Amino acid sequence: MSKIPVFDIGDTLSPSKEFSRKVFREELERQGVENPPKYPYEGFNEMSVESIQEWFERDDIDADAEVAVEKYKEAKKERLKELEMFEMLRKIGKEIETPGIISDNKVAAKKFYKDMFEEENVEIEGFVVSEEIGVKKPEKGIFQEFLNRRSLSGENCVYFGNNIPRDSACENVGMQFVLVKQFEVFGDNWNGRQVSKLNFENVREEVTR
């Protein structure tokens, strides 16, 4: 019997920090900003116009935050298409089990992804982000919240993530952790299960082991 595949978002389903910095740099240059400063990924929310406007005001950037955020969202969707992630998730839902998501992320990001998944006919059951429950990985509460929403035990799930110290904490609720090395990896010395690329065949192999 297959287990439920559950995914992190940033640098697991798609590249995150360096991708964001590249998109904002190119957009600011397009808007006429010379030598734009590097997007401070850890301090702001690229899905929120208000947050990006705060960054612009802090660093005295003369640009349209609303346009920049929309350009970022468009670029993110196109990158996910290029990586065939929508296709992978649809196939997982059809041939394995409906996937879930657990992410240290904002509610605004969850809305963006949910709307995008709906447009792409991707079904997700159980989508937990840290901002909505006030608990971040590696605290086990965020993993337990997902299990509660799906009425599952941890032994029924395999969690795919890229942050070894944070994501491997899923094992504290009985989930199995698989390190995804396709994009940026945080932490080291992981000798457990891992995949070099996230695709349907690799996911299927890990959830049926």
TrEMBL record:
GO molecular function terms listed in the Swiss-Prot or TrEMBL record: glucose-1-phosphatase activity
Cross-referenced SUPFAM superfamilies: HAD-like (SSF56784)
Entry keyword annotation includes Flavoprotein: no
Species of provenance: Candidatus Nanohalobium constans
Gene3D superfamilies for the chain: HAD superfamily/HAD-like, Putative phosphatase, domain 2
Enzyme Commission (EC) number: 3.1.3.10
Name of the molecule in the record: Glucose-1-phosphatase
Keywords: Hydrolase
Classification of source organism: Archaea, Candidatus Nanohalarchaeota, Candidatus Nanohalobia, Candidatus Nanohalobiales, Candidatus Nanohalobiaceae
